[in-house]
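Chain A, query sequence.
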Amino acid sequence: MFGLTIASQKGGVGKTTVALNLSYAMARRGWRTLLVDTDPAGAIGLSLTKKLSQAPGLADHLYQHTPIAGLIVETKLKGLGILPTGKIPADESERFTNGLADGAVLKAIQTAAQGRYDVVVYDTPSGFVGATLGAMRASRYVVSPVQAEPIAARGVMRIFEVIGALRAKGHPVELLGILLTMLHTKTQSSLAVAEDLWKTLPGNLLFEATVPRDPAFLEASAAGVPVGLLRRRPPPIAMVFDQLAAELEARLAPDAKDVANEPIALVD
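Chain A, predicted structure.
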């Protein structure tokens, strides 16, 4: 069991899209996955169904000590559960995020989920404060989406500073990789950002998978489903998250579920 935080300095880079679709892809690959929404805006619930956005969740556990087991929403995909944010009044957002900042509540959730799940994926609000820091303190790994636009790329070094500071204080979190999102291959400025990061960052830190701009994401959000469930035959863009999940597995050697990873015969 380990925690995986999706975190970024800037908002609007696709954190929730990545958290939701990566969790779905990992569960399809056999990882029992719990997706936890730590964003007081309840982005995961808003991306799926109205019922989920109004369901009790993390806030109920934080304030009323409601047991986690009764708050997890099991999906139709075996092995994928969701812990929504719960209802949080607008003026309580800061209190909610501050209540998660030290990571203790989220670590306790992982302990409670031990044996039932293999990985807990945290969707987080933007910025390295409050709930985002709490999720990073509770996690073993971080994936940081970076929008392929100049302003977003300028802040990419901040993730290294934050993780370095956390490790210096004894938190064993590490950066699993940086994921380029909203890449527009027909726009020179977007490609320039991607090329600059490819040249600047160590090759092992930048994922091969990239998330392009694609109307299928808006369609999936409007339909309240992961992009892989948008149609009976998923759109090609859904394969991005299958690739990302496969890359993650390759980087998770110490935590890999399958000790024996050998070829499987097609015929006897």
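The longest strand covers residues 174-183. Strands lie at 2-6, 33-37, 73-74, 80-83, 119-123, 141-147, 174-183, 211-212.
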